[in-house]
Every structure is written in C-alpha cells, then in structure tokens.
Amino acid sequence: xxxxxxxxxxxxxxxxxxxxxxxxxxxxxxxxxxxxxxxxxxxxxxxxxxxxxxxxxxxxxxxxxxxxxxxxxxxxxxxxxxxxxxxxxxxxxxxxxxxxxxxxxxxxxxxxxxxxxxxxxxxxxxxxxxxxxxxxxxxxxxxxxxxxxxxxxxxxxxxxxxxxxxxxxxxxxxxxxxxxxxxxxxxxxxxxxxxxxxxxxxxxxxxxxxxxxxxxxxxxxxxxxxxxxxxxxxxxxxxxxxxxxxxxxxxxxxxxxxxxxxxxxxxxxxxxxxxxxxxxxxxxxxxxxxxxxxxxxxxxxx
Length: 302
Description:
Blueprint: E1 5-11, H1 18-26, E2 33-40, H2 46-54, E3 60-65, H3 70-80, E4 85-90, E5 94-95, H4 99-109, E6 114-120, E7 131-135, H5 136-145, E8 156-159, H6 175-181, E9 185-195, H7 204-217, H8 222-242, H9 250-268, H10 274-285, H11 287-293
Parallel strand pairs: 1-2, 1-4, 2-3, 6-9
Antiparallel strand pairs: 4-8, 5-9, 6-8, 7-9
Helix pairs in contact: 7-8, 8-9, 10-11
C-alpha cells in the first residue's frame, strides 16, 4: 500500500481557477491522496464551488473559515491532515499529472525529508533535466540565491513530522528556511511540475532579518546572505525613490549596504547582473544623486 499524501489547497476568491486546479489534483497518477480545501472566507462563488466539488470525490474535504490569510489557512489544513506527506497548492495554480508520484518516488528512494520540483508560470519542456540531493547548507544556499529553489512551500513535498514544531504566520518568509534547518537531506529536480500564476511575495525587511539570522548561524553562507541582503536593500531604495516614498530605517540600511560592499564587493560582484552592478555603484558613490536619477535608470527588478 502506498503512503497517503495530504494536499492542502488554499482558496480565496478563486471562482475562475478553482475547478481547473482541482481537476489537476484529481488527475494525479498517484492515487493515495486526501485533498483538503481551505476556503478562507471567499466573497465570490468559491465557497459554493468547494461544496459542489467535494461531493464529486470521496478523497476531498472542505473547511470554511473567516478570512484570516494564507498562513492561517495552511495551519487549518495541517491540523486535520492525516497523510505521511504534505504538499501545498494555491487554488489559482495547477500541477502536472505526475507531480505527486515523482516527488513521492524521490521520498521513498532517497533518505530525504523534502522533495522539490521547479515552479513556473509556463509549461515549457526541459531538454536537460537535473536531479540532486542536497545537504542542509547546500539547500539553504540554493534558497538564498533563488536560482533553483524558490522561497515558497509550493512545488514541494514534506514529511508530515516537519510541521510538529513549525507553523505558518502572517509573514511566512522564514517558514521554508526553518523547514530546511530541521531537515537532514533535501532533493531537487528542475522538472517543472507546478504551474504557478504568481510567486509568493515577502516584505524585504523580513527577508533581510532572515538572512541576518542565517549569516549568524552558518558562517559558510555569509557571502550568499550578504548578496541577498544587498540586493533587497537596493530594491527597497529603488522602489521608494521611484515611487516618491520614504525609506523606513533608511540610514541603518544604507550603513549595512556600504559595509557589505566594503567587506566583500569582489566576492559578491560575480552574482550580480549588469544592471544590478550599475545601480550598486551609483548608490554607493552618491546617495543623493542616485535618489535624483534613480527613476530614469534601467529597471532594477527584471
């Protein structure tokens, strides 16, 4: 008998996409699943649609709750999930028919706690597929760079026991980091099994705080943390200047930005794009001038 997988689906005003999402879950080649719909106080017809869909498949159940955010919704799903493995899907997204089967196969064939696939808004086919198992620090490095592993729980299969001590909150920027920290090994494939409409967004201040904590805990990750902190500070200044908004805690952020450049400019430069380098040098050279010319520069977040 195969191991039960709990799929926790966050639903909030997704009347246009919910049906396609659920069809993609029911169509999975892996059959031993429970699908938990968490209706987070939808104000459109999503609530009614959840009730209708649950009647069509015995593996589905629904919880209706007052709107309290995606973190609270995922926690509600975790509270009733009975599977050996847990995965999360947003009702705006779909997954490919073999996602659960392939991630479960990785779990069963390797001594890992998390199996990860790529997420993308497109359905493009890869010509060069990769599969790798990663130690904790290697996985955190990939997460910091966000080239292979994105800072989201989407497109990932977790052992259920990882959530014994970890829960979601309003700001979930550290959830995946903490899950990696209590894991032994993690597997990643660049096969895109999860088709997402939107990446999860986090406040840059929370990401900076996360990276400062990681830098203090893992000395080997210092350069990657500093790269990430510097980029987030640049983006914060850029957005505020372009939108004529004040920079919160700007003086301390600028001191941190300059300290990183002074300490490790040569090691961080290889990670930066041409546009990122130009913004970095202009901001470091003259804060006031950068503030004036920033809106006419090439866009930073590409």
